[in-house]
Amino acid sequence: SFFPCSYISALLENEESPSLQQAVNSGWPASLHLIGKDILRFHAVYWPAMLMSAGLTLPKMVFGHGFLTKDGMKMGKSLGNTLEPKDLVHRFGADAVRYFFLREVEFGNDGDYSEDRFINIVNAHLANTVGNLLNRTLGLLKKNCQSTLPFDSMAAAEGNPFKDTVEKLVESSEVPL
């Protein structure tokens, strides 16, 4: 069937002589099919039917994400109010951009970007709260520990149970990280 070819061919952008078999072998089936909520019906009903007709495995999960608005308005090229992620990262740094969107846009729901709110949240949470904590911690290290972290031989002997637990969870995860 020709239906899934344009979707799956995205897996082969850098291939010299792409084929459907190469695409299937290089990343299909998808564990998660993440799409906009406005096309959920197509991708949860029609797309799986096309995959089945082509004899291809279905994604394990289809998730429709919310929309991102800017200053309370729908974004669009014709409206001239789109966001360029590279510009945001260049201006504010990747960590600040990640923090804002992870904090402000609940997965699955719509979210709104406003530059004023972005700056206020980054300043209040990252610069003030986290920055003050880091500054105080470094001051205590300088005052009490000659600016070095003390070595805890007991903790080193016991290993790192938190790290071990996280590694086990990542290894057992069905969704690629």
UniProtKB/TrEMBL annotation:
SUPFAM superfamilies membership: Anticodon-binding domain of a subclass of class I aminoacyl-tRNA synthetases, Nucleotidylyl transferase
Gene Ontology molecular function: ATP binding; methionine-tRNA ligase activity
Pfam families: tRNA-synt_1g
EC number: 6.1.1.10
InterPro entries: Met-tRNA_synth_2, Methionyl/Leucyl_tRNA_Synth, MetRS_core, Rossmann-like_a/b/a_fold, tRNAsynth_Ia_anticodon-bd
Gene Ontology cellular component annotations, sorted alphabetically: chloroplast stroma; mitochondrion
Main enzyme class: ligase
Gene Ontology BP, a term: methionyl-tRNA aminoacylation
Keyword Nucleotide-binding among record annotations: yes
All copies of domain Methionyl/Leucyl tRNA synthetase, residue ranges: 5-138
Keywords tagged on the record: Aminoacyl-tRNA synthetase, ATP-binding, Ligase, Nucleotide-binding, Protein biosynthesis
Protein name, entry field: methionine--tRNA ligase
